[in-house]
Amino acid sequence: MARRATAGALAVLVFAIGIAYAARLASAEGTGLLFDSATWLVWLAPFVGVLAAGLTRRRDPVIEGDRVLRHDDAAIVEHWTHGVGTAVLLVSGIALGFLFVPTLLGGGAPVRAAMNVHFTAVLVFLFGTFYYGANTLLAAHRFREHLPTRDAVDFTRRHYGLLLGFKKLAFPPERKYFESEKMAYLLALASTAVIIITGLLKVAAHAIDVPGWLMAVATPAHDVATIAMLLFFLAHVFFAAILPMSWPVLRSMFTGYVPLEYARHEHAGWLASLGDEPSAAVVAAGGHPASHDTPAHPGPTIAKGND
Question: What's the domain count of the chain?
């Protein structure tokens, strides 16, 4: 835990220094945009993410006493690099303006500073996203566990029915990710793909001639996908960080672990697959009533990047 905390603190420090340097660079006379002078770093970041995935040794979930390993170190790195990169990209992108919304910064040095901050966040975002993507390709089950199953409609109906007060419903034996999360994952995945493809086209335009018609399509597509990602991101923060019922899972994105009893109630299907007999009994019974001591999870947390 101490090693993980130290590594996390160093990563945050490096990112903060990078953001500060990028912003300060814009105020120096005669300096251009990092998108112009350091374009090669944008193409390097995905490669580094894929290479890092190839060198990573993953740990599968396992029950350890009264806790369950939900996220290994790689999953935590994926989550925070993708998440923090996305957050900074959203803030800087909105400040720069999108679709019919003009820039909030006027012009000159503030715009250059925001562009450089955007550049720095692009590197982190691309590393985290391609690190996650490569890890997923190397272990296909990590991708499959994010996809909706034939239980998606039934589990979601029961899950949210209980939240709305229909006490006669049995809380579904959810797997590692809620079925509602998995449906949100598909939308988030599509938005991320559009953002990356169109974003790389916009970056390429800083180095080569990109046809005008292609940019005329890529720019609004990038903006629309960004709006969709903003909605997903806000929902993710609300359901996974703000509501107290989600805090055990939030803590697991730092520690890697969730309490065993919490997992038995919230993710009986997942625990059963790990060999937990009480959870297997719940699955066999088709679910269990919602408990006042362990309340049902409030909603989707958009499981993109969370292995």
Answer: 1
